[in-house]
Fold:
Amino acid sequence: MTKTKLLRDLRALDTRLHSTEMQNFFSTKTEPTRARFVSLRNEVSQQVSKLTNAELEDIANKLSELSADIESGIENLQAKLDALNNTVAILNTISTVVGLVGRVLAFTA
Amino acid sequence: MNIRFRQLFSLTLIFASLLAGCKSAKDYAGLAQAGTTYVAAMNSLLVATGNIGVDATSEKLLQDDALSNLSPELYKNLSDEDEKMLQVIGQLRQHVNLLGQYFELLQELATSDAPGKAQQAIGSSDSGLIGNLNRVGSQLRGSGFTPSPVSAAAGPITNTVVSGIIRGALKDELQLRKDTIQKELLLQEQLLSALSKKINHDLTITQQTKEQRLVIGPLTSPTPIANPDTWINNRRSVLTMKLTAEQLQTASNNIKKLRQAFDDLMAGKLTFASMNSLLADFSTLLTIAEKLKGQ
Structure:
């Protein structure tokens, strides 16, 4: 049985154990029977949670392995954006300087 | 002189076009926007998964308590797993936020206004850098530095060249990160499917226990329902609870489309229609995730 199938079956069991019918059925039983049922139901829910967490943790770990490369991508894109903004800023600065030279020349002429 | 300038600009233009490939910045921007929307949806979905999971456990504990007094050990069995789940969700959200930053920067670069700003900075015969150069030239030797056909063409050509550089940078970045992005999208598919199944299970349990606790219990008790309006609202919210979870399962399949869109973009086959459809699908996913977060 695969983990996926096990989790699917355990979830179906968990749902059934928490159904209104099951709750009503056991509410008429003796205290030891009710306590035993609650303990077993708790065990099933715990196993469902454990398997679900393991599945999510496995995906999270695999995703974390990709984080470093995504961070490199972020740095690369940021550097490209900075370079573009710098180019525009440099063009504007040169234009301003040339404009000033023009005004100085006009003044000295 | 004019001919030489024109040849130089034409060559630069051809070089920039070759550097960029034939994909438009719009295609990259579309993919980046789809990615950003997906990340927003995933973030909400992760928060919703945590809240719905914790609430489902609380409902289970209350149901258990109604049958038999619970021991601290039985409480801890479930509560510890909830804490573990919240920890893993935190780890997943950290990664999703990183992916979000990546898509945002991709979009920022694809929609950058640098080509327009560069065109403005270069200017024409009487504005910007060229305008100022011409004014200096006129004062030094009685005529402008740049011939008027070149002045008129310089701005638009600069715009095209900068646009080409941006497309080239986007293409290079995605080419460099291709394998990682493909792996990432494949894992996101698995994650969305796992979350969707977990949410569906937790909501099924919450629905049936809440229905018993808030709807059937008060109705079958010997005393009349104290506040009928609250009971009506409770009943409606309980019965419609799973509709959103079912919508989520349908929407979960759309993540496959993002992977396909990325492959199409890399192969130069991405169509405007498929990009629009992807954006619409992710907007739906975002709406569903927001609804679940509010449950």
About this structure: Chain B touches chain A through 68 residues (CB under 8 Å). The longest helix of chain B spans residues 25-67. Residues 192 and 252 of chain B are 6 Å apart (CA to CA).
